[in-house]
Design goal:
CATH superfamily of the domain at 5-149: NAD(P)-binding Rossmann-like Domain
Order of helices and strands: EHEHEHEHEHEHEHEHHHHEEEHHHHH
CATH topology of the domain at 5-149: Rossmann fold
Bound molecules: magnesium ion
Distance between the termini: 62 Å
CATH class of the domain at 5-149: Alpha Beta
Shape: globular
Helix content: 40-55%
Oligomer: single chain
Number of helices: 16
Strand order of the largest sheet: 4-3-2-1-5-6-7
């Protein structure tokens, strides 16, 4: 029997983090939890650490350090605090794979540290590739590190490519559920509430990605993520709305043949595969039954109503730091929408204005990306204040 893979989970108390622990709970002989990190949810972090007994935990919010430390020191679990500690802990020698489930831009620096330490990456944090895909993919190559996608669409494409890595891709088709507002017009979207936007029809996810799904920004970010993961040109990436979320994405090869990966919308499957590759491990998750889904349907995405998807394609076409501007502005816009300070459609206006205002850099360095992220956040924030 092979040794269990030692896993660090960045963001263990979020939706992806808790589902990763569910996967590990079913496969204790395959995986061992080495590190857990959380930003604010100290209670759940402590509970998880007492169950999985990792080597170390990190609480991002330093004010919660004492609480976590007092709970875990008797179990001989190392406790650290702060953002720097999250970036450092991934370098620990006893880690084989780092699953990055942090929210948004915050995943970037820890992922860079993990790659430089030679750790395999299970990437749930798509924003890392959106912000700095060129740097991340170049680093992964340099350090001989694999990036296994956790995002269900990208996992689907990766699964379709197994055995085909030498065959050129003609195009990929990313499927989108369309979110809770599929088929609605701009008049309707003008007045939708936070509660309506947080009700996703198929997937249970964190707040940020759920709003992104409702606005189709999530699909836009996934288009950019796919470009970097699979080395594609923008013209090779298509989006089709598939409301049942059963076909998770498709690859079309140069002979016209299409391969797809199907299953119930259950994030535990792509999480498990990102950790277990190249093996498939047995589990007791619910199985798909065609008879429950007599109709699998497909539609064109409405990029005029859901402008965010168009903005993401535009940013990708611009290249340079434009996707980084798009992402930073979106994070601020989503946070403002969740505070009920801006309306649903205004999020796209803010992002478009920020893209027009922020300085464009064609060949950004890591420092440029960090500066761009800060500046784009400021611009969007100023626009929100001005419109109040
Ligand atoms: Mg996805």
């Amino acid at each position: 029997m092979t040794e269990p893979k030692r896993v660090a989970i960045l963001g263990s108390t979020g939706s992806i983090g808790t589902q990763t622990l569910e996967v590990i709970r079913q496969h204790f002989s395959d995986f061992q939890v080495e590190v857990l990190t959380a930003q604010n949810n100290a209670d759940l972090l402590i509970e998880q650490a007492l169950e999985f007994i990792p080597n170390a935990v990190v609480i991002g919010n330093e004010a919660l350090y004492q609480k976590v430390k007092e709970a875990l020191i008797p179990k001989d679990i190392k406790v650290f605090a702060g953002q720097k500690a999250i970036a450092q802990v991934v370098e620990m020698e006893t880690i084989d794979v780092v699953l990055t489930a942090l929210v948004g831009y915050s995943g970037l620096i820890p992922t860079i540290h993990a790659i430089k330490a030679g750790k395999q990456i299970a990437l749930a944090n798509k924003e890392t590739l959106v912000v700095a895909g060129e740097i991340i993919t170049a680093l992964a190559k340099e350090y001989g590190v694999n990036i296994f996608p956790v995002d269900s669409e990208h996992s689907a494409i990766f699964q379709c490519l197994i055995g085909e890595f030498h065959n050129p891709i003609e195009k990929i088709i990313l499927t989108a559920s369309g979110g809770p507002f599929r088929g609605k017009d701009r008049e309707f979207l003008k007045s939708v509430t936070k509660a309506q936007a947080l009700k996703h029809p198929n997937w249970e996810m964190g707040a940020k990605i759920t709003i992104d799904s409702a606005s189709l920004m999530n699909k836009g970010l996934e288009v950019i993520e796919a470009k970097w993961l699979f080395g594609l040109k923008t013209e090779q990436i298509e989006v089709v709305v598939h409301p049942q979320s059963i076909i998770h994405s498709l690859v079309q090869f140069e002979d016209g043949s299409l391969k797809a990966q199907l299953g119930l919308p259950d994030m535990r499957i792509p999480i498990q595969f990102a950790l277990s590759f190249p093996d498939r491990l047995k589990n007791d998750f619910e199985r798909f039954d065609f008879l429950n889904y007599p109709n699998l349907t497909f539609e064109q995405p409405d990029k005029k109503t859901f402008r965010n998807l168009q903005l993401a394609f535009d940013a990708l076409a611009m290249g340079g730091n434009a996707p980084c501007i798009l992402n930073a502005s979106n994070e601020i816009a989503v946070a403002a929408f969740l505070r009920e300070e801006v309306g649903f459609l205004e999020m796209s206006d803010l992002i478009a204005e920020t893209l027009a205002k922020a300085e464009f850099i064609a060949h950004p360095s890591l420092e440029d990306y960090i500066g761009t992220d800060l500046r784009a956040r400021e611009i969007t924030q100023e626009l929100i204040q001005k419109n109040k």
